[in-house]
Design brief:
Strands 1-2-3-4-5-6-7-8 form an eight-stranded parallel sheet, with helices on both faces. Helices cover about 50% and strands about 15% of the residues. It has 15 helices and eight strands. The longest helix has 19 residues. It has one domain: Metal-dependent hydrolases (TIM Barrel, Alpha-Beta Barrel). It binds zinc ion (ZN). The site of zinc ion (ZN) has 6 residues, from strand 1.
Length: about 325
């Protein structure tokens, strides 16, 4: 099935094999030095362990070539799964902070991978640069300046990620204003580890084009109404939510209820190898667990294409290609 993915983190998509390669190349000590050991280490245990992996991975990325390598491997993986367009989140300030790779060098490396995807693989990729909650307001503002400077040149939106409870979105109001004034979309994470109140806050503070997760909006009918009125798409990541304990199991995930409410829902993988999944697996798991028909799966794919942050002309072409691909699927 031709797909579009809107919520996936580049650093969270690095395969254990690549982490091993980077750690050897850059002489970074990891808690395991074999593929088997790393695969075991990657398995989700709890949130602190997840953060430990994330930081360790980020420390293995030392040069712009490393960024290009992970972005190339990422887009190859997307193309292999028939993902025609991806909007991937990339934490530029983390790499600037840990490894002193200046943003212009990061940007150039990302653009080389985008060109590779387009020219060699026939799929498109844009990046969401995210402010990491907990960072000082000045750092958020600096990130927004980088994002705005690269808007339309490989960067399609400003994001907000990290642990929701750490600080209010309000802290970065100046950064969001800068993006708004430049006409740049904002796509914050919210309604994941905190409830509907956090979603109401990001809607008020950022006027988002989409919301990452948002799966806890049902806790407040007023927030559901707001999402419906504003037609804000939700980037749902089922396996991620189960791993992080937002829902005890996939069976108890709010996804079918969100759809019953008429909300604008898309399916995504978040940090696929860390949650032992892929975007394709997410569709399989949802189809099996919730009994989604082919029509429902297809409408979820189309939702993502419609919610993509692309110029009208490119979006029309993307949807046309998706329809073509969908109609060409051989059915038993
Ligand atoms: Zn995420």
């Amino acid at each position: 099935m031709p797909k579009v993915e809107l919520h996936v983190h580049l650093e969270g998509s690095i395969r254990p094999e690549t982490v091993l390669k980077l750690s050897e190349r850059n002489k970074v000590e990891l808690s395991a030095n074999t593929i088997e050991g790393l695969k075991d280490w990657y398995k989700f245990r709890n949130f602190p362990h997840f953060v430990e992996i994330y930081v360790a991975i980020s420390k293995c990325i030392k040069t712009p070539d490393d960024i290009e390598l992970i972005a190339r491997e990422f887009i190859e993986g997307q193309a292999a799964q028939n993902v025609l367009h991806t909007e991937a989140t990339f934490s530029a300030t983390t790499l600037d902070k840990h490894n002193k790779i200046p943003w212009p060098d990061q940007h150039a490396a990302l653009k080389r991978a985008i060109a590779y995807g387009k020219d060699e693989l026939g799929v498109s990729l844009n990046f969401v640069l995210d402010i990491v909650r907990g960072d000082p307001a000045e750092r958020g503002l600096e990130l927004a300046q980088w994002a705005v400077g690269a808007f339309g040149d490989g960067v399609c939106a400003l994001g907000l990620s990290g642990i929701e409870g750490i600080c209010e979105a309000e802290r970065y109001a100046e950064a969001f204003k800068l993006a708004h004034d430049a006409g740049m979309p904002i796509v914050p994470h919210a309604g994941e580890t905190r409830g509907a109140d956090s979603m109401a806050e990001v809607i008020r503070v950022t006027d988002p084009k989409r919301i990452g997760h948002g799966v806890r909006c049902l806790e407040d009918p007023a927030v559901v109404r707001l999402l419906l009125d504003k037609q804000i798409p939700l980037e749902v990541n089922p396996s991620s939510n189960v791993c992080l304990g937002v829902f005890p199991s996939l069976e108890e995930h709010s996804l079918p209820k969100l759809m019953d409410e008429g909300l604008y829902v898309t399916i995504n993988s978040d940090d696929p190898p860390m949650f032992d999944t892929t975007i394709t697996d997410e569709f399989h798991k949802c189809a099996n667990t919730f009994g989604f028909s082919e029509d429902i799966l297809w409408s979820l794919c189309l939702n993502a294409a419609n919610a993509a942050l692309l110029p009208a002309e490119e979006k029309r072409a993307l949807i046309g290609r998706m329809r073509e691909g969908f109609n060409a699927i051989e059915r038993e």
